From TrEMBL:
Residues 1-26 form the signal peptide. PROSITE patterns: TAT. PANTHER family: 6-PHOSPHOGLUCONOLACTONASE, 6-PHOSPHOGLUCONOLACTONASE-RELATED. Keywords: Carbohydrate metabolism, Glucose metabolism, Signal. Belongs to the cycloisomerase 2 family. This is Lactonase family protein.
């Protein structure tokens, strides 16, 4: 199902894609195999495989994969081609799927060790999978078989500690993001409830967690959500959900971060209620994008040679509640959860966005993955 307020341009574009013979896409033939993960309670039916033709801005959807319900985040094993997907719920799960020739098969389903897992990270050597369990405020580490990529032991769970001043959103920890340090000595986790980036020590094999330290204390009540790393500089960018901000962080030689600057993600003069969502950086480190759910917009920043940010644009996200962003070369895709669409934008030479092509129908979409 899709929002009734889709534009005529979108509907005509979708109809044109569906009408192509033999499952072909509009020229040029080059396509990207993607998938939409999202929430069944919002109309989704599991993982939705999609073909996207960037040059035409056209989409083709395939049958939904029911074996991956409520898949709000996923990562792909680069060597084995496996897909690890969270399954949000009070008893959280992580599913392992393989895609071959358009057919998806679930190989394993394991406990995430907590409630409502919302983010995953795969270690560089493919030997461990980290999980952020939002509602239970914990992180988990799952050791993987290096030959098969399948889980080889139950998750090791480490609870977070702390809370923030927002009584409604921060009465307890809420882990929202996980990522491995480049030196493979630490697992970082961003906690919205505790206003903290934590660092968890990894053992020599990278499959067990040790002591936990605070790597960065965010502004009280800001509700940090996700981190994005600069592709070349020792910098990270932290998007905070509750105060709608992006903070530029310098990554230290150890596990710690230091704040350098902070920017609003909202348009000037905006007075409504909004929550920052996704953050994305183009592969060459020139532009940064952040989404606003409520303001339903995307903020665009130019990244200077030293990593500093300059706001250059705010643009409507094409739908309601933009939850995830994916950069594909000269295209930016926006997953609009509440309107159930993935909207495409052309990225100009200056990083600015322009609406481009048709919108894909993806009910309850929370994440755009690459198949």
């Amino acid at each position: 199902m899709i929002d009734d307020r889709l534009t005529r341009r979108t509907l005509l574009g979708a109809a044109a894609v569906a009408a192509l013979p033999g499952g072909a896409l509009a020229a040029p033939a080059a396509t990207r195999a993607l998938y939409a993960g999202g929430y069944n309670k919002e109309g989704g039916a599991g993982l939705l495989p999609l073909d996207y033709a960037p040059a035409a801005g056209a989409w083709r959807a395939h049958a939904a994969v029911a074996a991956a319900p409520d898949a709000s985040w996923g990562v792909r094993h680069p060597r084995l081609g496996l897909h690890y997907l969270v399954q949000e719920g009070s008893a959280g799960k992580v599913a392992v799927l393989r895609e071959r020739g358009g057919a998806w098969q679930r190989l394993a389903l394991v406990d995430s060790g907590g409630a409502d897992p919302c983010h995953l990270a795969l270690s560089a050597d493919g030997g461990a999978l980290a999980v952020a369990n939002y509602s239970s405020g914990s992180v988990a580490l799952i050791a993987l078989d290096p030959r098969t990529g399948l889980p080889r032991a139950a998750a090791q769970v480490v609870p977070h500690r702390g809370r923030g001043p927002d009584a409604e959103r921060q009465p307890a920890p809420h882990a929202h993001w996980v990522g491995f340090s480049p030196d493979r000595q630490w697992l970082w986790s961003v906690d919205l409830g505790a206003d903290t980036i934590f660092a968890h020590r990894l053992d020599a094999a990278g499959t067990r967690l040790g002591e936990t330290r605070a790597a960065y204390r965010a502004v009280a009540g800001s509700g940090p959500r996700h981190l994005a790393f600069h592709p070349r500089l020792p910098l990270a960018y932290l998007v905070a959900e509750l105060d709608n901000s992006v903070t530029v962080l310098r990554r230290g030689a150890d596990y710690r971060f230091t704040a350098l600057a902070r920017h609003s993600t909202l348009p000037a003069g905006f007075a409504g209620k909004s929550q920052a969502g996704a953050i994305a950086i183009d592969p060459r480190g020139r532009w940064l994008y952040a989404s606003n759910r409520g303001a339903d917009s995307v903020a665009v920043y130019a990244i200077a040679a030293d990593g500093a940010l300059t706001p250059i644009q705010h643009i409507a996200g094409g739908g309601r509640w933009p939850r995830h962003l994916r950069v594909l070369d000269s295209r930016l895709l926006v997953a609009n959860e509440r309107s159930g669409t993935i909207d495409g934008f052309s990225v100009g030479r200056d990083g600015r966005l322009s609406p481009f092509g048709a919108a894909a129908r993806a009910p309850g979409v929370a994440f755009i993955g690459e198949a």
